[in-house]
Amino acid sequence: MLLSDFTESAVRHRRGRLADLLTLLRPLHSMKSLLLVPIAFVDASGWTLRELAEVGWAAAVFTVAAACVYVANDITDRDRDRHHPAKRLRPIAAGRVSVRSGWLCHAGLLVLLGLLIGFAPGGPYWPVLVYLALNIAYRYVFKQIPLLDVGVIALGFVLRIVQGYVAIGATVSDWLLVTVFSLALLLLFGKRRYELLTAGPEHRPTLRGYSVELTNQLLPLTSVLAMVAGLAYLATDAPFGPYRHMAVLVSAPFALFVLFRYLQVLLVDGGGGDPVRTLLRDRVIVVLCLLWAGALAVALVLARHPVL
């Protein structure tokens, strides 16, 4: 083998290893923190650069904390993941990243997390610590209990919202928390339904406590709860001032059709195995959400600057 061929092979190997380590962190799932934590900015007192920095830092902290959880889960679940048609391709389950390298990556993330919290410009970071503790409890206890397993994961979404508000010292709406919790449950029940149809309990033993019929009943229940709570938030606690009624009227059709489309993806197209990927890559959902967000942004700006 020529020296140039050997060097090229070594470079490809290093690039592949770096790609596997990056995959281990699940960068696509960072959107959970990058989208949920900044919601607090709509209730910021003055929309200052300081508040923007505090919310952005909180989102970064939660992104790193979530990556810690993902790496630890991939290590402990590697044997079960090999029974899943998609998760068996994950770096540790597939053997491309060793367990030792996984734990080293996990340790490095914990150090980074400690530094980010230690130098944080915003408020306390107890929601992140609760999130980490909750995931440890999930890994060893709640993961084995049907229904409670999805409830604990859904709380992780709620804690992201809470962290954003804590970072800027604002009060979070109860209706907003109920909305996020019920939407998270909707996504998780859809994921459980997909797993029942494709993988079975060999991958996730708690699936023995579920059935397709049960998830089919829980999906509309959580959809209705999310819809009602979301509209109640817009009508009462959302910072739209005199434009609250407009926000409700505009949001109702968008929210309905986003839910309709997601249920269509689950029940007709057979999707939902990766809720984050489904939401971010489905063009109909993305377009609807962008139009919806644009309409609410206009109402928010008008409420903040009545002179316009």
TrEMBL record:
Transmembrane segments: 55-76, 97-119, 125-142, 147-166, 172-189, 218-236, 242-263, 284-303
Keywords: Membrane, Transmembrane, Transmembrane helix
Record's subcellular location: Membrane
Bilayer topology term: Multi-pass membrane protein
Entry keyword annotation includes Transmembrane: yes
Gene3D superfamilies named in the record: UbiA prenyltransferase
A Pfam family recorded for this sequence: UbiA
UniProt main location, coarse: membrane
Keyword DNA repair attributed: no
Name of the protein this chain belongs to: 4-hydroxybenzoate polyprenyltransferase
